[in-house]
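Subject: sequence -> structure tokens, single chain

Hey, anyone have a minute? Need the predicted structure for the following. Not urgent.
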Amino acid sequence: MLKLHGFSLSNYYNKVKLALLEKGVPFEEVLVPVVGCPVDRAMSPLGKVPYLETEHGSLCESQVILDYIEARFPTPALLPTDPWLAAKHREIITFLELHVELCARQLYAQAFFGGTLPDKFLARVKGDLVKNLAAFKPLAVFGPYVAGDTFSAADCAAYVHLPLAGLATKIVYGEDLVAAAGIDWKTYVKLIEQRPTAQKVAADRKADQARATAVTKAAAGG
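Reply:
Had a minute. Here:
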């Protein structure tokens, strides 16, 4: 059986988990601590999650894992069979992750972990995000799904990444830059969360957040 290593607070972990659930693929979750996670570097050389343990060996990097899952378990499909359309879905995923999520990730230290970032740094990130979100908007279809009229691998990514970017910018800048770019991610997330698979991902993430909070309090003696 496949083993998915990571934790439910990770958006990239949840991206893979949602795809596995949508495909109905049996898998085991191997949860590691959020802080100081003992990652097997033979499986994930940079010590990052998620990584997937298979009977052939291990795979790291969420998009590599997603492509493997799609190739090995083609039904139900999460990518179109037409090469051009499949490439357009991957374009959305790549753009979303490289230019939106990774850009917004620079804010997470202040938004979610109590850090303080320099004003000049915050101004630069905001400028980049405004530019990148404006470029992402015409790529995304939202018809009603992010890449068209059918749920796909692109939704596995958009569902977990867009809310984090929106929330982080709202906390740091006092303005949800995703919504300000004309991307109605809240309505989109409500649509995705009508799916039982997304409901499970959301419930597990909430439970993991409570677990992480309890561990942090215990470590602090609270």
